[in-house]
Amino acid sequence: MAITKEKILETLKPIVDPEIGISIVDLGLIYNAEYKEDSKKIFIEMTLTSPMCPVGPQLMAAVHTKATSIPDVSDAEVKLVWTPKWDPKTMASEEAKDELGIF
Question: Looking at the predicted structure, is the pLDDT value of residue 2 above 90?
Answer without folding.
Answer: no
